[in-house]
Every structure is written in structure tokens, then in C-alpha cells.
Specification:
Distance between the termini: 59 Å
Radius of gyration: 31 Å
Strand content: under 5%
Number of domains: 3
Helix content: 55-70%
Number of strands: 2
Length: 164
């Protein structure tokens, strides 16, 4: 029982954030310095495309770093370091750092997309009684006894007027 309460406390309440945003969207200082992010920026939807982009960026930056290190390319540091091998090592370390950052970001987005798909599947599994929601209120005509939609001002069968 206690675990369920802790899980509910950590869940993201998007309606609360959207209501807060709608109430303060024209207040320019509401989000400044609070650490809160508006829902228009945080985009709490599917993060799988971002994860894929981050994984591709990891491969690109790692490949570029290896190309600079092993390729027949001159890497300079603006004249600060004269050794060619040290310049190549520095470039490789920078590209490895960027690659690791993109990889970690990709895993975070992947984890966020797993949560999104899990919530989506639970919502799709819920059974909704569509017959109750789609029906309009019915009214029975006192003159002819036929049932029809409540919003008609006259009976469609015998033209009995409810307004008079």
C-alpha cells in the first residue's frame, strides 16, 4: 500500500501543469527563477524520436573523433600546443565526451518513451462503454408515444410542439 502511494506521488500530472500554464501564460515572470518548465517547452509526449536522434548523434560524433585521430588530418589548437599527436588526442577526448553525453541523453529519452508507451497501452486496454456516451437523452411524445431526441422542439412524427 505504501509503495502505491509513493508511485502516485512521483507520477507526472500533465493536467495540473497545463492549468497552471493557462492561468499564468501572460505573466512573464511566472517561470523565471522557479525551476519550473512550461508544458509547451517540456513536451511530455513520446520521446522515442529524440532518443533515435541522440543515438545517431553519438555515432556521428564518435566517428568524427576517430576520423580526426586516425585520419591523415592536421589538427591545430590555434598555436597553443605544437605537438600534432596531443592535438589529435584532445580532439578525440572532446568528441568522446560529446558522444557520451549524447548517449546518456539518448538512454534518458528512451526510458521516457518506455514510460509513455506503457501508459498508452494501459489507456488503450481500458474498456469504455461507448453506448452510454453516444446516446442522446430521449423524450416520449405524449400525443403519439414515439421516442425521439430530447433537443427537438416538436415531435418529428406528429409535430406536437413542446414549447407551447
Amino acid at each position: 500500500m505504501k509503495n502505491t502511494n509513493k508511485e502516485n506521488e512521483n507520477q507526472y500530472d500533465s493536467l495540473k501543469d497545463i492549468t497552471e500554464f493557462q492561468n499564468n501564460m501572460f505573466n512573464p515572470g511566472h517561470y523565471i527563477g522557479t525551476g519550473k518548465i512550461p508544458p509547451t517547452v517540456s513536451a511530455p509526449g513520446n520521446a522515442m524520436p529524440l532518443a533515435v536522434v541522440c543515438f545517431i548523434a553519438t555515432i556521428v560524433f564518435l566517428g568524427f573523433g576517430l576520423f580526426l585521430f586516425f585520419g591523415n588530418v592536421t589538427v591545430t589548437s590555434g598555436g597553443l600546443i605544437k605537438s600534432q599527436i596531443i592535438n589529435k588526442i584532445i580532439a578525440l577526448v572532446i568528441m568522446l565526451g560529446i558522444s557520451v553525453f549524447c548517449l546518456l541523453l539518448g538512454f534518458r529519452y528512451f526510458k521516457k518513451s518506455k514510460v509513455f508507451y506503457k501508459e498508452k497501452s494501459t489507456l488503450q486496454k481500458e474498456k469504455i462503454d461507448e453506448t452510454v456516451e453516444d446516446q442522446l437523452w430521449q423524450r416520449t411524445c405524449p400525443k403519439c408515444g414515439i421516442s425521439h431526441d430530447f433537443d427537438y422542439p416538436k415531435c418529428p412524427n406528429c409535430k406536437f410542439s413542446y414549447i407551447d
